[in-house]
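User:
Care to share a sequence and structure tokens?

Assistant:
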Amino acid sequence: MKINRTILPPGRIGLAVSGGSDSVALAFLLTKGGKKKNAAERFVILHVDHGLRPESKEEYRFVRALAKKLGVPFHGTHAKVVQAKGESLEMAARRVRLAFFEKKMRTLKLDAIATGHHMDDVAETFLMRIRRASGPVGLAGIKETSRVGAIRFVRPLLGCRDSELKDYLRKYGEEWREDASNDDVSIERNKVRHEVIPYLEKALDENLVEHLFRISRFLAASAAPAGAAHSRAAHSAGTARTAAPLA
């Protein structure tokens, strides 16, 4: 599988692994199944147990065992999520997670944290932001690189489909953990993933996800500084044309 390794900094990288298929695939791909030279010095697996679901402690153990299998260090935490006034549970969990990542960026001297976001995430975000009447910057959605405070995030799997990542893991007999809450269609993203996109693929465009991804890359290029716009647009168009094989 080809991923965009060009966005990875040369130093040490934290891998944000929840236990889901996308982040597990990320860990296997970047470490080459633990066979990458100097993988232990190059990568460290980070995991946050938010303590919000009964199965979260088992997921913590699963990710810790995965790190051992891949031969890379593991740093996890059993967090306590307390909502601030006016804060949703999701926002509170994100705040706790970001605080952990920021601490590890500093104490482990990490150059970036990689996440397993993929093409389907980009398409879902695009549709959700249409509902909010977002402009070009908002519709550009999930970027390959971004900063949140002191944290630099990199997302090398944006050119991959979720199904391709799962097929990759199945091919090598690797397991992952499914979060049961991902099936709850009362949550907006889940509704878009399980109901809206399948309907639009059937009624309108069977290649909807790839096309929304391509549009989002064009928008990202148009919103970029003038000096970078041309090169990013060319890269985005090339990535979109080969989106399926890249996975």
Summary: The chain has one domain: 5-241. The CA atoms of residues 14 and 113 lie 4 Å apart.
